[in-house]
User: Fold this.
Amino acid sequence: MAKSKGSIIVDKERCKGCEICVLACPTGVISLAREVNSKGYHFAYMENPEACTGCTNCAVVCPDGVITVYRKKVNA
Amino acid sequence: MVENTGISDIVKDENLVYQKTKVLTDKVMHYCPGCGHGTAHRLIAEVIEEMDIQAGTIGVTPVGCAVLMYNYLDIDMQEAAHGRAPAVATAIKRLMPDKYVFTYQGDGDLAAIGTAETIHACNRGENIAVFFINNGIYGMTGGQMAPTTLSGMKSSTSPYGRDVQMMGNPLKMTELVAQLPGTWYVTRQAVHTPASVRKAKKAIRQAFENQKLKKGLSLVEIVSNCNSGWKMSPVEANKWMVENMFPFYPPGDIKLEGKMVGKE
Ligand SMILES: Cc1ncc(C[n+]2csc(CCOP(=O)(O)OP(=O)(O)O)c2C)c(N)n1
Ligand code: SF4
Ligand code: SF4
Ligand code: SF4
Ligand SMILES: [Mg+2]
Assistant:
């Protein structure tokens, strides 16, 4: 069966750590980092990258538009 | 060090499915973390890109937190005095009827100081789109009560909650202008979840498309948060919005193709 695997890239210097994307991700991929960016925000990152399907939910809700999403079909 | 480089065999140009639209500039928006203004800006920019009307669109910006919107959208924009955006947009549209013209206004701008301009532009049926960001408060100036502030809602000028006996009732501008013959499309949306964002984008697109029909004004309210003014985290503010704003400002279409929804 064809499945999708995804990956996101968060522009960590522009992320404001609002956590909206964390709630929007259906597969629990995203967390806020313990470390901060140069503005002092705990930026979003893929804590569980393997779970990403590339559904774009996180990017669609990000108020600062800092998430880029990639997706490809894989055979499971 | 956490690096955000993604998974290397997936992060390739041919697998790209979402990136920031080029109609948004690269400037970092000044909005507080999690503020719905940023999402609303992005949706307008995405629609402009998808309709390929970047050179043919003129936006009118408000006074309020979105006063600097012209820094973020790479289109022609005109700043209006507080509340006067629909009057300015009227002039622009009448002089350049082939341009897509929109206003972007907060609730203090659209429903307080600009009440007259809003109602009369709607009643005249100007062929413009009005995007109305309702966060129930004057965000920019420090969270003062607005006409839209809910009954019982705390703000810096109603610290014990809005007492409607003393301070009057909250105002549903969107339902009010839907009654006017000049409005063609009136809807209320939100941008706090992936599903609501996708719906709101369709509504914004509709408001742009409607300008080709020349049948009247399209107004899209977006119920939004002001987490700083509400003194909550962004996630708490969105939850509070769903629990408190939505019962009074329910998302959904109010008027479609000039007819009130649910009425024949
Ligand atoms: C003529 C005039 N009166 C008052 C103000 C002060 N003022 C600036 S923004 C604002 C209200 C903004 O509230 P809103 O439109 O809801 O925008 P928000 O910041 O909440 O998005 C006020 C009263 C002003 N700038 N000009
Ligand atoms: S939604 Fe955007 S700004 Fe907010 S934490 Fe996620 S990536 Fe950062
Ligand atoms: S693309 Fe979908 S699955 Fe991947 S991180 Fe974003 S919300 Fe989660
Ligand atoms: S004050 Fe409120 S409306 Fe203004 S940017 Fe902050 S959260 Fe948004
Ligand atoms: Mg406001």
Remarks:
- Residues 3 and 96 of chain B are 48 Å apart (CA to CA).
- The domain at 20-260 of chain B is CATH 3.40.50.970 (Rossmann fold).
